[in-house]
Amino acid sequence: MPFEQAMRDLTSADPAVRLRAAQRLKQVAYLEAAIPLAALVNDPQDDVQLEAIAAELNIFLAEPLAARKRGSVLSEQAFSAGTLALGERPVPTEVLTALRLGARDENPRVALEALYAFGALASEPAGSPRRALLRDSGPDIAAFVGASDPAKRYAAVRVLGRVFARRAQDDPIEETVGDAVITALNDDDRAVKGGAMHALGAMRYERGVQALTDLFQFYGKSDSADAALDALARIAHPLSAPLLTAQLSGKSSVRRGIAIEGLGRMGDASKLRAIQQALDADRSDGVTLAGVYALALLANAPIDRLADALTRTRLHDQAKQYLVELIPGRTAAVASHLQDPDARLRLDVVQVLGQSGDPAALPLVEPLLKDRDPQVARAAVRALAMLKQATRPAG
Asked: Which of 112, 156, 264, 341 could be a cystine partner for 144, CB 3.0 to 4.6 Å?
């Protein structure tokens, strides 16, 4: 089917014709089809909607979607792949609006596909387009936290945690949005409760501090208590300082590492001595890495050891998250790693620089457009697009 014919068929009165057109455009993933396809996200026919949602994802993801597993939510797979699964193409507002509205669909399957697709793509905008997106979408997505279906409640808190994850240029989160996530801490579904804890930490929503503290005390030594503590460490409100400080001398290395992170984020240099004592007492790799992170925040210590840790499988994700937080203003610290013979390391560093929003990263990333590894070169294209959008003047 020629592209022009597929585009015309999107507006056909025959649902079978619209379906074939959406399937064809899902395969070819033309950027020019994104806005016309957006109309089919809210088509009267469920199967047309599902194909349109999948087509939108294929247009904007770096890699095509895998074949659907029976009973699986295809867009959830794209969402779970994280923000780095996105390609370099900017996502039009019309597409994000259509997906947000599609999440209201009466068909639970369509609604979930649209909601997760929105979450997967809505992390792409930066600068003023992002601020407008958060302002317009927050109340809609927050309303789904009260849905009767636990799968939709879980999706809603996950999407809020991803899309509203705090960035330096963001406006304060609307209380109706953040408070909706706090209510999910009381959900009967354990997954929803856990997703809400993670979301509050990612959003750094300070009104959630008391509820998270209460949950930490309630859950005692369980993994749920660790999750509540992690959220408190990410929010890093001064009221949590006594609780976090107490964990430095506890028996759990996991909690000690979390506490070191949180105290580092608070920016209180008076905690340096207590942190150093905890590091001297616990030489485990995860705690040591948390110490490198905290000392960089509190004493401007070097961060090159974090980049080195990217090559260690067990520490990779922890080190990468720390670098994403620390790299703005410190891009030169990882410049030498862009010349490393390990393509996986170069890829990680390019991705971190792309998320930095720092103009100083642009000249570091540009040479990687010609990297000998195709995956690194594609990541450089995506990183440059992200940097240019994040550093574009507001207007």
From this structure: 156
Residue 309 tokens read as 């840790």
Q: What is the second-level CATH architecture of the domain 1-124? A: Alpha Horseshoe (1.25)
Radius of gyration of the chain (CA): 22
Nearest to 47 by CA among 115, 109, 119: 109
Say which amino acid occupies 207.
R
Asked if residues 132 and 169 have their Cβ atoms less than 8 Å apart, the reply is no
Quick one: CA dihedral 298, 299, 300, 304, positive or negative? negative
The full set of domain ranges for the chain reads 1-124, 302-395
Nearest to 142 by CA among 165, 127, 158: 158
**What is the rounded CA–CA span in Å between residue 347 and residue 375?**
7
Instruction: Give phi and psi for 86, each to the nearest 5.
Output: -70, 150
206-248 per-position pLDDT tens digit? 999 999 999 999 998 899 999 999 999 999 999 999 999 999 9
Give 362-371's long-range contacts (Cβ < 8 A, gap of 24+): 362/387, 362/388, 362/391, 364/331, 364/335, 364/338, 367/338, 368/338, 371/343, 371/346
Q: Domain 302-395 belongs to what topology?
A: Leucine-rich Repeat Variant (1.25.10)
194 close to 227: Cβ distance less than 8 angstroms: yes
pTM over 0.85: yes
Residues 215, 360: Cα–Cα separation, whole Å: 41
